[in-house]
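Whether sequence alone determines local backbone shape is best considered at the level of individual chains. In the encoding step, the backbone of a single protein was reduced to a row of integers, each denoting a local shape. For completeness, the protein is quoted in full, as a sequence line and a line of structure tokens.
***
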Amino acid sequence: MRLPLIDPADLTLEQKPLYEDMRKGIASNFNAFKVEAENGALMGPWNPWLHEPGIGKAIWGLTLAMTANATLPDNVRQIAILVVGARFDAAYELYAHIAVAEREGMKLERLATLVADLKPADLAPDESVAFDVSYALVRGGVLPEPLYRLSIATFGQKGTNELIYLVGLYALVSTTLNGFNVPVPERE
């Protein structure tokens, strides 16, 4: 870990409101995995965002907007997020979203295939499209036209937009986690 966890008692005046907002949002949206140290310091991507609160606030705002305005089914969202995490080999992202997917009932075989950066054979049609779009986007270049049209036919324009933004957001999260070498919490 390249940035030390920030003890809540040591937060600056600029960090404190962001910390409080993140804790509130985490409690309501990200509760399937460990996000706090024993002293209340935030782990995962939230710690680097707290170190740069001007930037962290903007990223946190995008995260909240993506959650509040979600229209894609959770299983489709988790497929996309796991594709991104696997491509970037972002340990904390994989740890966190494996926990979310398991809580939502995703089978171990499917999870193992996804984190191996492979396409599971048992995907429903909408999950398959989400996988293909996410997989294509994280490899760079323009999303192929037939795949874009298939996404529109499957999710509509709004859902396709959301999927593209979701991949971008989690690419940013993965880059943050990898750039600052954010570790996975000890498993209990």
Notes: The two ends are 20 Å apart (CA to CA). The chain has two domains: 11-68, 74-179. The chain has a mean pLDDT of 96.
